[in-house]
Structure formats: C-alpha cells, structure tokens
Amino acid sequence: MIIFTTNLGDITIELDSERAPVTARNFRKYCEDGFFEGTIFHRVIKGFMIQGGGLTAKMREKPTRAPIANEANKGLKNLTGTIAMARTDAPHSATAQFFINVADNNFLDHIATTNAGWGYAVFGKVTAGMDVVKQIEGVKTDTIAGHEDVPVEPIIIEKVTIQD
C-alpha cells in the first residue's frame, strides 16, 4: 500500500501488481525514489478525475524515467476510486503522472490496440481517503502557467509512505 500525505489529508492506494505489473512496479519505484514528494495535483475536473505526479507547486515539470508499456488491455476498468496512468495521445507514453477517477469513466477503458482505442491503464485503487479525493475534486480551479483546471491553492503531496 502507498499512502500519499497531502496538505488536505491522506490517500491510501492499493496497487494491483498481479494484473498491471509493469505499471504498478513503475509507480512504486517513483514512490520509493521520493519523486512524488513536493508534486501537486495539477489538474482537477469535477465529475471526472484528479491528476497529479509530475509538476511542482511552481508548475515546473519534473524529469521522469522512460515511458512504459500501456497495460490498459489487462481488463482493469476506470471506475470511481481507481488510479490510472496519465499519458499523451501516444498510447505507450505514460511515465509518472497519474489520475484518480472520481466517476466511472468507461470511455477511458481499452477497446482496441489502436491509438484511439488503447485507453488508460488502471493499476490500483484508493482504499482509504476518498473523502480527501472528493475534497480535492471540489476545489476552485483556474488556468495557471498555461495549464487549465489547476487548483488555485496548491494541493501538495507532502510525503509518500510505503507499507508492505
């Protein structure tokens, strides 16, 4: 389990290493390296998701490792409370950024091995702290440093704890 301590409270995440081994291992490595500490939830869209894991409070992108293979075809669904990898339009471009679904987002699920059909790889779920996720979902957002849907008051991941 991974515990993100944010300035709004704790979010506990259980990784699905069995069905999304590459993605779970990648995420855990970023956690072990302390990469997420000091990053923010930089994209918050009510009724959709909260995204974080790549930008500092000053809206600077942190350097990442190489992209990983997209495991969206492993059968995990983008349901409320699941955590998935963010990526560019290229299916196999995910590095460190992730999002937590605040609704059932089946349109993000894998439907085909085409660019448009790959979907977004779910690799775990929130097991505690959905109240914190919902609190983050409800914050005021604006366009900041060229990014849309950014919380006006930074939501910072202050500490990451790994519990085995």
Shape: globular
Uncertain segments: none
So, the CATH homologous superfamily? Cyclophilin-like
Structural class: mainly beta
Q: How large, in whole angstroms, is the Cα Rg?
A: 14 Å
CATH second-level architecture = Beta Barrel
Mean pLDDT: 97
- Proportion of residues in β-strands: 25-35%
The first-to-last residue Cα distance is: 6 Å
- Could you name the CATH class? Mainly Beta
**Number of spatially distinct domains:** 1
Helix and strand sequence = EEHEEEEEHEEE
Task: Write down how many β-strands occur, each being a DSSP E stretch of 2 or more residues.
Answer: 10
CATH topology: Cyclophilin
Strand order of the largest sheet: 3-4-6-5-7-2-1-10
- Largest beta-sheet details: 8 strands, antiparallel
User: What is the helical fraction, as a range of percent?
Assistant: 10-25%
Quickly count the helices: 2
GO cellular component, one term: cytoplasm
EC number: 5.2.1.8
Enzyme class: isomerase
Function: PPIases accelerate the folding of proteins. It catalyzes the cis-trans isomerization of proline imidic peptide bonds in oligopeptides.
Notable traits:
single chain; 164 residues; mainly beta; Cyclophilin; 8-stranded antiparallel beta sheet; two-stranded antiparallel sheet; globular
Tell me about this structure.
It is found in: Cytoplasm. Helix content is 12%, strand content 35%. It has 164 residues and is mainly beta. It has a single domain (2-162), classed as Cyclophilin-like (Cyclophilin). The strands form two sheets. The chain has an eight-stranded antiparallel β-sheet. A two-stranded antiparallel ribbon has the order 8-9. The chain is globular and about 40 Å long.
